[in-house]
Specification:
340 residues, alpha+beta, 3-stranded antiparallel sheet, two-stranded antiparallel sheet, 47% helix
């Protein structure tokens, strides 16, 4: 090149361009590079930061990341743990004691407490009018009890005070109160007696009565009858319906009437037979050819008479109806002795 000259005392070359020419060339190359980047830049692509980010931008990004982490942590907690965290933060920032935030358990109630408050020995239609969830729970428990026999508490029998309750399913299966003694502290099986007691009690400030049955052993029966004798329930030997029962005097009268009526009827038949025999003899005297036929006809008429029951008995009244017992009545008769 013509513009290059040899430097004295060295083997290199140096250009004769000035500093202004060099700056112009760099600026042109920079502009060219920017144009190329603008052409190649996509519409959704963000521009590059040629300078450092501001401090406020950094702080906003940090706060946003911290809030995201805190929200994820709160979502992972349940309601009670979240409540404890908020209470702890409140005490940390505003001061105070943890005892001030402790919940009072004086008004807490279990299902047993609700049943004791709303239980009834006998539910009536009036009690089911204004039903709350507590009463519905007590009514549901009451429907599961078996009300054939009672379980008794005879610990205060000398004070003439007794406690009765209905049997549960497990007690019915084990035979407690029916095949075993009905006293809750006694398990004897022999010598069971059935008693009927008028149970007077106070429930929700109201006096009530209920007629209950229970089975007790001889010792517990003595405790039950310590002050006065209770009514003992005994098994019935025969069960006769009231419709079929008739007083003995009426039966005797009917028998007398039927016997006298049958005697009169027999006497009347005897007279008819004698009259028919005399008429047949007269006919034999007059006409011997036809007499044997009349006598044979008279014998056949006498033989047609019923031997057992007379005709008047048929017209005395309607035929006696035999009542057929239903299956439930047969089961009641079968289990009658068992439930006494």
């Amino acid at each position: 090149m013509d513009s290059l000259v040899k430097v004295h005392g060295g083997g290199g070359y140096d250009s004769d361009f000035s500093d202004d020419d060099r700056q112009g060339e760099s600026s042109e190359s920079g502009l060219k590079r920017k144009r190329e980047e603008e052409i190649l830049q996509k519409p959704f692509q963000k521009g590059r930061h040629s300078q450092k980010a501001h401090r406020s931008l950094h702080a906003n990004e940090v706060d946003r990341e911290e809030a995201r982490n805190r929200r994820a942590h709160l979502i992972s907690l349940n309601a009670f743990e979240r409540h404890k965290k908020f209470v702890g933060d409140y005490i940390l920032y505003y001061g105070g004691q943890m005892a001030d935030f402790k919940r009072s358990g004086t008004k807490d109630k279990t299902d047993g407490d609700v049943l004791r408050e709303n239980h009834r020995f006998l539910w009536r239609d009036e009690d089911e009018e204004d039903m709350t969830w507590e009463k519905e729970l007590a009514k549901k428990y009451y429907d599961k009890l078996f009300k054939e026999y009672c379980i008794a508490d005879l610990s205060r029998y000398k004070e003439n005070k007794f406690g009765f309750r209905w049997r549960t399913e497990n007690e019915v299966v084990s035979g407690k109160g029916q095949f075993q003694c009905g006293n809750k502290r006694c398990e004897k099986v022999e010598g069971q007696k059935s008693w009927e007691v008028n149970f007077a009690y106070v429930e929700h400030g109201e006096k009530k009565n209920a007629l209950v049955k229970l089975r007790l052993c001889p010792e517990c029966s003595f405790k039950l009858n310590y002050h006065h004798k209770r009514k003992e329930v005994k098994a019935k030997t025969k069960r006769v319906s009231e419709e079929n029962q008739e007083p003995p005097q009426k039966k005797k009268k009917k028998r007398k009437r039927s016997s006298s009526h049958s005697k009169r009827h027999k006497h009347k038949r005897h007279r008819d037979r004698s009259a028919s025999s005399s008429s047949s003899e007269e006919m034999r005297d007059s006409d011997k050819g036809s007499g044997w036929m009349d006598g044979q006809a008279g014998d056949s008429e006498a033989g047609d008479e019923p031997e057992g029951q007379s005709e008047a008995d048929h017209w005395r009244g309607p035929a006696p109806t035999v009542e057929e017992k239903s299956r439930e009545e047969e089961f009641d008769e079968y289990f009658e002795d068992m439930f006494l």
